[in-house]
């Protein structure tokens, strides 16, 4: 089957912004009598006429890292395909040429793109790094079915299959796998088709495919080219979901009527706290952001060796925008280089040689401006990597410095967008805000251009307060959880996205040295807040975080360098009842958790969660995504659920891993705006960062995405409430169980609910330090023990809420031994 993924071009945002936010000239407009510097005009990326949204193909994760490090913003719209990674990029014609020079294949514009069905996953290109194939034990099948899921959407049925072969790493010959399915219980296998092999960072992952079928199969059969064959039963994915809260005719919803910039979000949060003081309050985070503000700048003299980049000492809105700089050619010979300052007007009197020719180099002029401008100029330097050896020419007149910021909308009062550092409010909702209930942190808009997550989070907050007194399910949520909403965790970047540059991803902190500090780079400055944390960090060698200050995934100069990331750590350390977290992003339709990062060489991930936690994540995901589907049948497919490094890519230093591994918080990441099946075309149509608010209700629509994913957030609250009330102890068994067997036997553990099992086989008492029952392989069920001699298993299980089977205390040093035990006796 061929799947078509049509992306709504990000450039369409220009029309949207024109209808919602009509930008005025920058506050630092050119003073009367001054001219704008040649290097100070708008970046081409701010002009929709000069950029394209194109589909690209990369050979794999190594190339992705290389391209991101070169400063290209490729972090979203990515999808693993059999031959590597395909994605989208917003580029100018010049950047398109640069991408091709890096070896990236440009597939064309996004409209009507069709995913390739070619196999291999680029393994051949990385064969030199391929590890030795793992040989299965003699009793094991060489092929395993990982998942076989059936779901329906828009009247169509789909089968998603993942299968793995123990010989998948084999590069020559490439291992192929064939899938067959029946047409229902009791029917024969048929409909053979080849599955696609997926490889990431040189490592075999699995074979997988999504197929459209007319009838739900009962079983599948997978055959490997190496001779292995196995069968598996088909499960239902998100089928027969309970109705969402919005199905209640008296339930109030659909509160958010459009995209909101940070000031609107924060104002509404504070208003909710005033309106509903019994169940809501505001917490102000202690670390102020660096601010929607910039130094005023100009690049004077082009971009060659004679060019000088000038930056004010004061912020643009605090006087920097009033500064002018003029390079003056005086009559005469043997004249020194000097600087005159009158008010905010700076005149650089250029040096002349004995023949009366101009003699000041760019490097000399830059030095003079820094030392003789009476403190007006903080930073002056040659353009980018130039040495500044060229002779500076006189300017036609004064050149105005500007910070290039548009701080108000047409018709809005002056100061609609505050320039200085911002204090981020947290809207806290809960009847009991004293730590007794499990806390849930909803963090939206780490990435500035992601407008739907903020709207989705606000919609969920509105539903809580408006339905508290009239809806019993909402009352249970508010009475039994403690919810913390950060509606925009990146207000500076979000304002820049709304009012200046729609594609802004990072915050606005400029950590760039002189070679990237000119205003032509201003749309590339900032830190990716979701790469700035401490666990699995790029600073420790994990992939997905860049050291380039202009990269879309720039990780910052050090871990937790940014106030926005410091605030999250402060919040979870102060409010230790926070046990759940959802970092809401867009777009792509993934729901994921740990592991989120890996070291590329060998694909060494951060530690995988215990099998019990993994099962709890999957169980919670099924509940959350069922409620998303209930709105308009949007299905987040199983291939887009799981550890983010497995379903998406490595994202070094993300917030989820810091919160899970450091504080034990069940931390989810959510890319809203998943693909929606279009039965008219037979294609899957994806979202975008800022889809038209109304759009096409059944396909691309910011409004529809906001409502359906708010359903999911509400269900996450119910997951947390159930977790907090869970006092039921888990049960577990060894299957097939203790007894006498005539030969070697395979056994595994089974649990009544998601739970982690600690066990021993050496006669010792099991404790929390004992081996944990692990998965066979990532995304697979628990391991199988091949027992060849008489063995006694001792074990206990612990569920996600911390309940221990039979009330066993693993810390009481043997005073109570009510753990589980079973002996497998093998006849010799």
From TrEMBL:
Spans annotated as Disordered: 536-560
GO CC annotation terms, alphabetical: extracellular space
GO BP of this protein: proteolysis
Entry-linked InterPro entries: GH29D-like_dom (IPR059177), Peptidase_M14 (IPR000834)
Lineage: Bacteria, Bacillati, Actinomycetota, Actinomycetes, Micromonosporales
Family: Belongs to the peptidase M14 family.
Reported cofactor(s): Zn(2+)
Signal sequence extent: 1-29
Keyword match Hydrolase: yes
Gene3D superfamilies on file: Zn peptidases (3.40.630.10)
Family matches, as SMART domains: Zn_pept
Keywords: Carboxypeptidase, Hydrolase, Metalloprotease, Protease, Signal, Zinc
Domain spans labelled Peptidase M14: 381-714
UniProt KW Signal keyword: yes
Identification of the protein by name: Zinc carboxypeptidase
Biased composition (Low complexity): 545-554
Active site (UniProt): 671
Source species of the chain: Micromonospora costi
GO molecular function annotations of the record: metallocarboxypeptidase activity; zinc ion binding
